[in-house]
Amino acid sequence: MSEFLEACMMVLFGCSWPLNILKSVRSRTARGRSVGFLILIQLGYLAGILSKVLSGHVTYVVAFYILNLCMVTADLCLVLRNRRLDQQRQQN
To answer: Tell me, what DSSP letter sits at residue 31?
Structure first.
């Protein structure tokens, strides 16, 4: 039951990332976005994955950690791209 609840948590957290990614793509600005926050979220997902691996309790839930980590990484890349676009707009 605890694995199911953990999977539910990961799915619910994961539902927000596609929306964030879409917002980053559409807005083309990094205003209001924090690179540090995204990195902390990535570290949290990495800690969760490492916890599962070190405990020897690797289950299907790890796939949700990896999926969420990939989405946060994509969002981070978009925020960095948008920072560059913001800088280019300021120079013009």
So the answer is: T
Angle 47-34-86 from CA coordinates, rounded to 5°: 140
Q: Is 24 exposed, middle or buried (0-12, 13-18, 19+ CB in 10 A)?
A: buried
- Count of C-beta atoms within a 10 Å radius of residue 20: 17
DSSP one-letter string for 46-60: HHHHHHHHHHT---T
What does the buried/exposed string (b/e) look like for 51-86 if buried means 16 or more CB atoms within 10 Å of the residue's CB? ebeeeeeeeebbebbeebbebbebbbebbeebeeee
**Do residues 73 and 24 touch, judged by C-beta distance below 8 A?**
no
What's the pLDDT tens digit per position in 49-79? 999 999 999 999 999 999 999 999 999 999 9
